[in-house]
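Let us begin with a simple case.
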Amino acid sequence: MGCRSCVHNRHIATDRIMASQANNTRVEVPNSDDLSDSITSSQEVHDATSPNPLSGRDGAETNTTGRTPLLKCKKIIRAATFNTRTIRETSRKQELLNSMFEQEIDILGIQEHRIVHNGPIKYEKVPGYTIITLSAWRNEMMAATGGIGIILSHKAMKSLSGVIARGDRNLIVNFTGNPKASVIVSYSPTNASSEDEVEDYYTDLRRCIESVPDHNFLMILGDFNARFGSDDVKHTMHLCTNRNGKLLADLILEKRSSSHQYILSEACW
């Protein structure tokens, strides 16, 4: 991933051509050298007027002393997204980390980790990586479901400047640099979910996008449970576009402007 003019591009990556809360939770970034094996931070910020307390030209500057820029010319940063379908077991977590190491991935957005923990956001340090998770929730049968997060290499962790949770399905992660970078990790309700739940999710996602300053490089790493197909495009993977696919396409078209381009991809290196 280069920089230069890339600040004018906004990238939405999906694992598969793949009820929000009005409150934000902003968590202070711990010093990467001081992380224990499992640290939970739970500083809550409620701001009804600004979805992102760190937004603005001077935003995301908290705790940036000594942090290195994420995006640099001639510096490669690889990002990806993956629906893990649980990493509660140590073996599943280690398998994922091994894959990240083999593919040289620095930033991995994860969905469906199914780990329920106290406090909104948990930092876990493992050899070479830091796992940041937003707690999963329990369904009517008390089974753990959902849960999103991000895994950062040691290189990416050095650039981390802030983490903000919006509801259960969106996480904003900010990085220092010139340009600064913001990553939104997102997990959409399934296509079988109610209209109200899906509409609430997309309203919340729009607010997350709007909270990121225009001059930031933005990546959205998510599982949108969306399918695209047919119409005027030949050789599509699916025969038709489902409801989530239409909503995702509408979002991209809505946010397009003369100064920004949104790129939808299953894999972009």
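The second case is a distinct protein. As before, the sequence precedes its structure tokens.
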Amino acid sequence: MTLGPLEYLIVGFEGTRFTGQILAELRAARDKGIIRVVDLFAIRKDEQGNVTALELSDLSVEEAAELGPLAGDLMGMFAPEDIEQAAASIPNNGAAGLLLFEHTWAIGLKEAIKNAGGVAIAGGFVSPDVLQELEQDLEAAQQGAGQEQAATRHHLQHSQSTSNRHHLHHRLPHQRRLA
């Protein structure tokens, strides 16, 4: 069995209430075959700093059996130290989600690379800070392009209406002014 790339993500929240919106998006991505949630912990820290962690996984019994001894490693991928480290970054009366997911969309690509004799030399993700900057730059460029398009449309509309008036002026019969 080929595994897709595995990624982990820690998401922090103010307060200890999860809305479920993120889980709905995870389910939607899973249902589309984009990802598989391998391990997920919901971590909460109360006002006194006491930590509670709840573990969830999308690996079915059949998938776990197919993975054999690796299943235990995957399903228990996060060690207690990982939970403690994630919890340490949560303020009192806060929460975090600790997620390990497989990029199932990439399994075919991974197999094709392997079958073609290719070997991954490097890989990684763009850091969240850099990604946020890129998103802001893209949004600013889109807004600038939108303003340019609006100005161009206004100019074209103005030109067309002027042209139409000019064009109509030549088609309408001229009235003579009597002095």
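The longest strand covers residues 36-45. Residues 160-179 have pLDDT under 50 and may be disordered.
Keep these points in mind for the review questions at the end of the chapter.
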